[in-house]
Amino acid sequence: MQGYIYPNEFELHWGLLIVVYPYLTGLVAGAFILASLARVFNVREVQPTYRLSLLTALAFLVAAPLPLLAHLGHPERSFEIFLTPNLRSAMAMFGFVYAWYLMVVLVLEIWFDYRKELVVWSRGAVGPLALIRRLLALGANDLSEQALRFDRRAGKLITIIGIPSAFLLHGYVGFIFGSVKANPWWSSVLMPVVFLFSAMVSGIALMLLLYVVINLLRFKPVDMVCTDKLAAFLFYALVVDFSLEMLDFTQRLYEAEESIKILSQMLASRLVVSLILLQVLMGTIVPLAALALVAPTFRRAALAKVPDELRRLVYVIVVVLVQIGIFSTRWNVVIGGQLFSKSLRGLTTYKVELLGIEGILMAAAILLLPLVVLYLLIKVLPPWQEAEVEIHPPAAGAVPAPASP
Amino acid sequence: MADERAPSGKPIPARAAPPLPHDRRAFLKACVAAGAAPLVSGMVVAQEPAAPAEGPRYDPREHYYGMGVDVDKCIGCGRCADACKAENNVPRDSHHFRTWVERYVIREDGETDVDSPNGGIEGFPERGGEGGALRTFFVPKLCNHCANPPCVQVCPVGATFTTEDGVVLVDEDWCIGCRYCIQACPYGARFLHPTRHTAEKCTFCYHRLVQGLMPACVEVCPTGARIFGEVQRRSSPLARFMRFNQMSVLKPHLNTDPKVFYANLDGQVR
C-alpha cells in the first residue's frame, strides 16, 4: 500500500477469475469471427479451420460463465439475473447476451452445419457414439438435396446474424468496464472496441495454435496456405488492436485529467511487467515484427523467405506470445483498475492466492476445461475436412466412416 | 434530545411516526416483543415498519432524507464511525466501514497527506516531522445516498435500490455478491460483508429512521458536525444548514447527485 486508499478499498473485489472471464469470452468471439470469415466472406484459405473454430467457440463459451459463477458471493442466487434482471444494469444483460449467443447462434449454426454428417454417421452404426449422434440429429434424417440446401442457407443466415452477435458478446464485456464512470482506468468509450479487436487477435491466434498443434498430434500435414492466411489476419487484427490501445493511451496522456498522476504512478510501479513487458513488448511488438517479417502480410510473399518448418515454429511462438499478451491485457484492465484508490491518492497491491476458489489452481482449471470440452466435441463431431460427407441425392446410402480424430 | 424528535428535527407529527419509548432498553424490549428481529434489514423494515400495531405506520412518501456535514465542526474523534459499527454490527476490523473520518493535512510544500487509521475510531496519531502544515481538517465520509446512484444502476438483480424517502439500501437476501456496485461507487462507500458475502453500506440507520430516531453517527457526534434530516422541508435543520452555508458535494463532475452535503469543504477532498 502506498499513499491513501479508502478503508473499504483494502480488498480487491474482482480478482483472477474476473481476469479469466473476459479472456475466455474474447476467445469465443474471436474464434467465431474467424469461422464467419470462412463462411460468409468465403475466405477459402482458412476453410480447414472453419468447423474447428465453431467447436472451439462452443467449448470456450461453455466455460465462460464458470469464473463468474465461482466468483459470486452467492452463486446459488445467480439465476436471479434471469428472473429479476435490472434492465438498467449492463451486467444483467449477461444472461440474455450469453443465452442468445450460445443457443441461437453457436448451437444452431453447429447443428445445421453438422446435420448431414450426424445423419450419415449414425445411420447403421452402433455404440454410444452413434447413439449420441442420433440423439443430436434430433430425428432429422432427411438427406434430400432440398434439405441440404436448406441446411446451407440456414447456416449462412445464422452466421450473418452471428457476426454482430459475436461483436455484441465481447463488446458488451468491454462495456461492463468502460461504463464505470467511477473508475478512470476503465471509463472509456473505446473500451468495448478495444475488447473486440483484442478478442479477434486472441481468437485468431488460438485457432492458429490449435490448428497447428492438432494436426501435428494427428500426424497430418499442416496446410501452410491456411496458416499463412491466419498469420496475415492475426497481423491485421494486431495492428488495429494496438493502434486503438495507443489511441486510448495518447488520449489519456494528452487530456491529462485529474487521475493522470496516480495512473502514471501505477503504470510505473505496479504494471511494468504485465503491461509494458508482457502486453506491449512481448504480446504485441515482438509478434508484430515477427509476423511482418515472415508472414505474407503486405504482399503475396513475405519480406523474408523462410522455410515452412521454421515459419510454422515462428507462428507457434508468436501465437503463444499473443495469448500471454492478451491475458496480460485482461489482467491490466481488471486488476489495474483496482490497484489505485478512487481517492486518486494511493496504490494498493494484489496478491493472487494459489488455492481457494479465486486462486491460481481454480483459474487454471477453468482455463483448461474448454480444451477438455473441445476434445469431447471433436470426438462426437470430427471437424476434419476428410470427415465431411459429400452427398449426391440418389446415393445417400453410401456411408463413409468418420475419420477417427 | 434527539430521540424525541423526528429525523427532520421537528417534533414527530402524530401520523408520521410511532410513539417513542423513552429509554433504549425499553425500546429494544419492545422491538423484541414485537418479533422485530429483522429490524437490521432495511428492506424488511421498509415494507413492514416495526411500529406497534396500534400506532400509525411510517410513510416513506412523507420524507426525503439527506445529511449535512460541517467540516469545520469535525474534531476527528471518530465517535461516529465507532457508533456506526456498534449500531449496525459492522465488522470490527479496519477494512470495513459504513462511515469513517479522514484527516487532511495540506503541507506547506503544497502536498496533501490523507489518512484514516481504523476509520478514525481511535483518533489520529500525532504527525511526525513531515514539514509544516498549512491547513488541517477532518472529513467524515459515508454513502452519499446519491439521487442518481451508479450502484443502483449497475446492480444486475435490483438488490440495491433507492427508497421513496431517498435512501439507498441493499437487500441482503437478494444480493448475489457480484460486487459490481462496489466497483461503481466513486466514493468507496461499499464493501462486501466478510461472512454474509453481500454488499454492505450506510443505510442512514434506516431501522432508526422509521422509529423517528436519528442515525447513530448523528446522535453521537459531540460537535453537531453531522446534520440529518429532510432535504426539501424548509423548516428542517438540514434545509436551514443548507441555506446558511455554501454547499459542496463530493465528485460533482460524476453527476451522481449526492445527498450528503458538505459545508466548508476544501478542494483537496476527494
Largest interface: A-B, 42 and 44 residues
The strands making up the biggest β-sheet of chain B line up spatially as: 9-1-11-10
Oligomer: heterodimer
Record the strand order, biggest sheet of chain A: 1-2
**Number of DSSP E strands of chain B:** 11
Structure notes:
The complex is a heterodimer of chains A (405) and B (270). Chain A has 405 residues and is mostly helical. Chain A has 13 helices and 2 strands, in the order βααααααααααααβα. Chain A has a two-stranded antiparallel sheet with strand order 1-2. Chain A is globular, with a radius of gyration of 23 Å. Chain A starts with a strand and ends in a 25-residue tail after the last helix. Residues 393-405 of chain A have low confidence and may be disordered. By secondary structure, chain B is of the alpha+beta class. Among the domains of chain B are: 2-66 and 204-263, Alpha-Beta Plaits, CATH 3.30.70; 150-200, Alpha-Beta Plaits. Chain B is built from 8 helices and 11 strands. In chain B, the strands form 4 sheets. In chain B, strands 9-1-11-10 form a 4-stranded mixed sheet, covered by helices on one side. Chain B has a 3-stranded antiparallel sheet with strand order 3-2-4, with helices on one face. A two-stranded antiparallel sheet of chain B has the order 5-6. The longest helix of chain B has 10 residues, at 24-33. Residues 1-22 and 36-52 of chain B have low confidence and may be disordered.
Top keywords for this entry?
heterodimer; A: 405 residues; mainly alpha; two-stranded antiparallel sheet; 13 helices; 2 strands; 1% strand; globular; disordered C terminus; B: 270 residues; alpha+beta; Alpha-Beta Plaits; 3-stranded antiparallel sheet; 8 helices; 11 strands; 20% helix; disordered N terminus
